[in-house]
Design goal:
alpha/beta; Arc Repressor Mutant, subunit A; D-Maltodextrin-Binding Protein, domain 2; 9-stranded mixed sheet; two-stranded antiparallel sheet; 13 helices; 11 strands; 39% helix; WH_DNA-bd_sf
Length: 354
């Protein structure tokens, strides 16, 4: 049986890159920590850690498990906190939201406090799924809303089955984000890989990931560049860590990479012509909702629960009194990255794909 402590151990190991430091963080002996990681590998029936290098890195299977681990651990913590909050508030009506995993990393942690500041304690239950299952749940009435990232033209919705495609009148704009091509630095602090200069290994989202759909649409309009496949993952977090290890170029949301870019763990591999603009949208169920959910939708449409003109990550910094300072810069000879706010911790949701 899977032990949630093993998932917490894997997260600590990925963040520290060291069995010793991870064991210290988890307050266990190194031998006990190693046994728990081995137990997780036995459960997964695959090696999750490449122990040959220093610092160590996760295997491709390890990055896959890591993405789910972050969501599951966050879900359990969030569930406990929200049950406590709901019991204290005495409210019984629940607003149900389906969303891809990424929204927990780059959006909900900043957005939930904003909702609470406007509406007070409001029970929100978030289910994390792939995009198509999100809309299937909306169609069945299992949830009231879907919140997701989409390309600006809305081509993402055209990839859905006809019966699941939302009416434009049922969509509200909450914020903006952008996928930017990022890579690690080389020994001379220059981008390890540059788009358009030689062959660039690419770290891809898996085919059923909605960000892959938006990226594919954008690639059709770029000039010919020499790319080769270097690895895949379901989650942006997995690709981010792979890119930090120097495995290739990954198109990652600006909102979750501000700290990596300001601390030069990741730098641009190409100019703004390779960026993919995205929007954060809320989509409602067409049937009539509960009174609280209908009122919630009216606040969404009126812009009281979002800033449509702002980047997705900008929602939280504004609430915290911070100012966003990062601006796109063209690439020059050395790696130059603008500074920005640090991303918030991962939102806690039920595990699912992106």
């Amino acid at each position: 049986m899977l032990d949630i402590r093993w998932l917490e151990d894997l997260i600590a190991l990925a963040e520290t890159g060291s069995f010793t430091r991870a064991a210290d963080r988890r307050n266990v002996t190194q031998s006990g920590f190693s046994r728990r990681i081995q137990s997780l590998e036995q459960w997964a029936r695959a090696p999750l850690v490449d122990r040959a290098g220093t610092p160590l890195r996760l295997t491709n299977a390890g990055y896959e498990v890591l993405g789910v681990a972050q969501s599951v651990v966050g879900e359990v913590t969030h569930l406990r906190d929200r049950l406590t909050s709901h019991a204290a508030s005495g409210r019984s009506t629940t607003i149900r939201i389906a969303a891809p995993h990424l929204m927990g990393v780059n959006f909900f942690q900043g957005w939930f406090p904003q909702v609470e500041a406007v509406l007070g304690h409001l029970p929100l239950v978030v289910m994390s799924l792939n995009v198509q299952p999100c809309f299937a749940a909306l169609d069945r009435g299992d949830v009231d809303f879907v919140i997701c990232l989409a390309d600006q033209a809305g081509h993402l919705f055209e990839r859905l089955p006809q019966a699941l495609r939302p009416d434009p009148a049922a969509r509200a704009l909450l914020g903006r984000d952008v996928l930017i091509p990022l890579t690690a630095c080389d020994e001379e602090q220059r981008p390890r890989y540059r788009l358009g200069i030689g062959r660039a290994p690419v770290l891809d989202y898996l085919e059923d990931c909605s960000l892959n759909w938006s990226l594919d649409l954008a690639r059709a309009h770029w000039p010919d560049i020499d790319l080769c496949h270097a690895g895949s993952a379901h989650y942006s977090d997995g690709l981010r860590l792979m890119a930090r290890r120097g495995l290739g170029v990954a198109w990652l949301p600006e909102s979750i990479t501000a700290a990596d870019r300001s601390e030069r763990r990741l730098v641009r591999a190409g100019g703004p012509e390779f960026d993919v603009p995205l929007v954060v949208q809320a989509i409602r169920r067409q049937a009539r909702l509960s009174a609280d959910a209908e009122a919630f939708w009216r606040d969404l449409v009126a812009g009281r629960l979002g800033r449509p003109e702002a980047p997705a990550a900008g929602l939280a910094p504004r609430a915290a009194g911070l100012m966003r300072t990062d601006q796109p810069e063209p690439l020059t000879g050395a790696c130059s990255e603008a500074r920005g706010v640090r991303p918030l911790n991962s939102c806690q949701m039920r595990p699912g794909g992106l």
